[in-house]
From TrEMBL:
Signal peptide: 1-19
Pfam families linked: OMP_b-brl_2
Ribonucleoprotein found in the keyword field: no
Protein source organism: Bizionia echini
Protein name: Probable protein-translocating porin PorT
Length: 237
């Protein structure tokens, strides 16, 4: 899903950018927009989160069923120099992932179909600090790449819940840290700047909370579980 999303976004941005590049349009919209020291905006977006597992022993993979999520947030942009900006993009990211376990995890135990699946709901308050590196503006568009670090607060983590998977509660940590990389294109319209962008996010810390039982079929074989995902954002400035 993430590969398809990246490919779709790249083709979309390439097609629109090519249309701008080879058009005969010479009127430059928002001529002084990039000369502002500070600028602000907001974004709406789509997110697709996944988990990357590392296991203690060689066993069947835990499958992750992903569902698309919704994102919304604000943007603060500080111009450092002509082709470099520092961006702060706090936002709300809502998603759900379902973990599907193989029956081999419950060998020698009684289990039901419910035990083979765990729903992991995540509501992240996301705080990325990004460096934006742009090319020279051509007509009314300007490609760029971004990279940076972020932290997030997961409001749906259940970290302090005394119940664990033995009671049907899959717990994750509340505080997360990520690195992010992506690309996009600024389009200078008549009244505002519109920016579609794609960004990959990769967790730096383990997110799983182990069950109380050291032999738990849900967590004992998991050495680490790290979030990764793709953001498709549409920015208005």
């Amino acid at each position: 899903m993430r590969k398809h999303l990246f490919l779709f976004g790249f083709i979309l941005l390439s097609q629109v950018a090519s249309a701008q590049l080879f058009s005969k349009e010479k009127i430059r919209n928002l001529e002084t927009e990039d000369k502002k020291r500070l600028s602000y905006g907001f974004f709406l977006g789509y997110n697709s989160y996944d988990f990357n597992f590392d296991y203690n022993t060689d066993q069947a993979d835990i499958l992750v069923e992903k569902t698309g999520g919704f994102s919304v947030g604000l943007i603060g942009n500080l111009r450092i120099m002509e082709y470099m900006d520092l961006r702060f993009e706090p936002g709300l990211y809502i998603t759900t992932r379902n973990l599907v376990y193989n029956e081999s995890y419950f060998q020698g135990m009684e289990f039901t179909d419910t035990d083979l699946k765990r729903e992991v709901k995540s509501t992240y308050i996301h705080f990325p600090l990004l460096m934006k590196f742009s090319t020279k503006r051509i007509n009314n568009f300007k490609p760029f790449v971004v990279a940076g670090l972020s932290t997030a607060l997961n409001l749906s983590s259940n970290e302090n819940n005394p119940d664990d998977n033995s009671s049907g509660q899959f717990r994750t940590k509340k505080n997360m840290f990520f690195y992010e990389v992506g690309f996009g294109v600024d389009f200078y319209l008549y009244f505002f700047k519109f920016t579609p962008s794609i960004r990959g996010v990769f967790a730096l810390n383990d997110e799983i909370i182990q069950d109380k039982d050291p032999n738990s079929p849900w967590t004992s074989n998991v050495n680490s579980m790290k979030t990764r995902g793709v953001f498709l954002n549409f920015t208005f400035q």
